[in-house]
Amino acid sequence: MNFTRRSFLTAASAVLATPLASTHAAEKAAARGGNRLAIATYSYWHFRSEKVPIETVMDKAAALGVEGVDILHQQMAIAEKAPLDAAGRSYLRKLKRHAFLNGLAIPCVSTHQSFVKPKPEELTENVEHTNKCIEIASELGCPSIRINTGRWGTSKDFDELMKNRGIEPVLPGYTEAEGFKWCIEGIQRCLPKAEACGVLLALENHWGLARTPEGLLRILNSISSPWLGGLMDTGNFLEEPYPKLAMIAPKTVYVQAKTYHGGGEWYTLELDYDRIATMLRDAGYQGWVALEMEGKENPDTAVPKSLETLRKAFGA
């Protein structure tokens, strides 16, 4: 997508419309010493090898002096799609205890689901799965989960999707408008559970219908709820990222910051974090910034270098 004069004006208007409270929020973040930093457990496990235990990442995060750990649901030692039973709850309580003893918060659980489902029963399955993920976060004392719109499923696999720069054909016989309708309905059906558990749904610019800022904002602007916001993944706009990130900054409630030491698993972006941090401050953002190191370098060397970059940019 080319960044047109119209989309520039839209982004600029959103920034100009931000109330003075945004300035006050930025001042509060600066007075506190910057944004709080977390490490995403994904930084140590990219789906390509044996899982790195969550407890191991917590130990490393504590040693590196960050304040939190963003937990990837699929990395947990519980089955992703199974019901949350007594054994699963016991495991979650052990993780919660381990984080506490390491002086760590758990600001987010990064989950996977797809609301781009034409069959009502499949949409319901994903709503129920997301509601279970909300319960998982609640059990951990975690205030948010990352959610996705989902994809059309017309790519053979994620590697093929990445070769196509995240672009995927619409499912034959359906329209993009229908996909947005299903997605909005699915998220709306999860909001009562989110409110009851006190867990914010953070919708990421994570391929699918949220591959573009317009797609993400179309969903967020269609649902009026204090329990839904945007998750800014700094590495998911592959072309002209900065104006696109600026468009979603006013709606952002959580940030995952990509780095690519050793070259990225699927692609590499050279991101200017001083510029991104200034953009977020201007939008009044004072929340968490979670490192997602997606490079091929050993995380034991790449994560500390990444944290140095983020600390400098975000004053953490």
Spatial strand arrangement across the major sheet: 1-2-3-4-5-6-7-8
CATH architecture, by name, is: Alpha-Beta Barrel
| Strand proportion | 5-15%
Uncertain regions spanning at least 5 consecutive residues: 1-22
Task: Give a quick rundown of the structure.
With 316 residues, this protein is an alpha/beta fold. It has helices at residues 5-16, 20-32, 54-64, 86-101, 120-140, 158-163, 176-197, 213-220, 241-248, 273-282, 299-314; strands at residues 37-40, 68-72, 109-110, 144-147, 200-204, 228-233, 252-259, 289-293. It has one domain (22-314): Divalent-metal-dependent TIM barrel enzymes (TIM Barrel), CATH 3.20.20.
Structural description of this entry:
By secondary structure, this protein is α/β, with parallel strands linked by helices. The protein has one domain: Divalent-metal-dependent TIM barrel enzymes (TIM Barrel, Alpha-Beta Barrel). Helices cover 45% and strands 12% of the residues. It is built from eleven helices and eight strands. The protein has helices spanning 5-16, 20-32, 54-64, 86-101, 120-140, 158-163, 176-197, 213-220, 241-248, 273-282, 299-314, and strands at residues 37-40, 68-72, 109-110, 144-147, 200-204, 228-233, 252-259, 289-293. The protein has an eight-stranded parallel barrel, surrounded by five helices.
